Amino acid sequence: MASSITPTSSSSIPVLMKMGCTNDVITYRAVGNEIVCLQSPVHGEQQLANFNPTIGDVIGIDDILEQTQAQDNLSDVANYITSDGGMQYVPDAITLNVTFGETFTFRTAGLETAKLNIAAPGVAPQQFANFNPTGADVLDLSKVLNNTPANPNLSNLASYVTATVVDGNTILSVLPSDTGPNTVATPFAEILGQSVTVAQLVADNAISFTPTLATVQAFAGMTFLFRPEGNELAAVGTSAKLGPAQIHGFSLTDGDDLNVKSAFVMDNVQADMSQINSYLSTTENNGNTTIWFDKTGSGHGGGLAIAVLDNSNVTIGELVTNHAISF
Fold first, then answer.
1. Is residue 98 within 8 Å of residue 117, measured between CB atoms?
2. Do residues 65 and 113 share a domain?
3. Which domain holds residue 295?
4. Has this prediction a pTM greater than 0.85?
């Protein structure tokens, strides 16, 4: 960011530029036309003497403002720097990525969002120190929650994220979308030195979730729930023994997609979308739609049921037209 001001003096004295230092007092030369480039605020307070802007002296603040959104022309610099008895750094909101295996320490200035990674079974949860929701610190769980039916407004977050206090630290765990009586939650975050609940984090606006395209597996015989915000692809398979996947919450118009590739692959069938009506068909019963796969490609319907769409009455043609089915 070019936030330094160039000297405007018409003096013939050549411009001199030097770096600031937190260990020494920087004294401007008497002839003026001198720029002192201050270091980042993390280095502490820097002292300047003999500063005289009327003879072209300048304070360079590129490094001071590099973590803010101040305009290059300094038109809004007063929002970030004050001069009432000294220089003050006013931080802007920033977002940083988290790395597994390293403790993420939130800055004391607050206004910091940490983007968490997808929870991984067998991998230690990501650790957070100095987390302060009252300072507008936020845990961004977009990657963690993207493959769950959690609502973007977090109204049902407690159904998918749990908080457990161990030795004074709070461990957050997430449940996958195919929750059941034997489902095991995966720990993904440990807030060090604090005891908090999921409800508290939501109330403090300390958690955020912005969903993106999600791809999940709807195994044969399982009950699968599409997330309410849509834009989700569910891969369905075939199993004569386990029966079709029971699909809830499917939307024809919200970007939901049923991927049937595994059904074709398992039976060594090669086809494209132009042939889909020869292999797939639907029947409707009590407001539910069953999708059938006929590996012979006879086009007569029937075969093996691969999915039942609860409370949805659609045809293969409608699925194709709405880009709601794919290979």
1. yes
2. no
3. 214-326
4. no
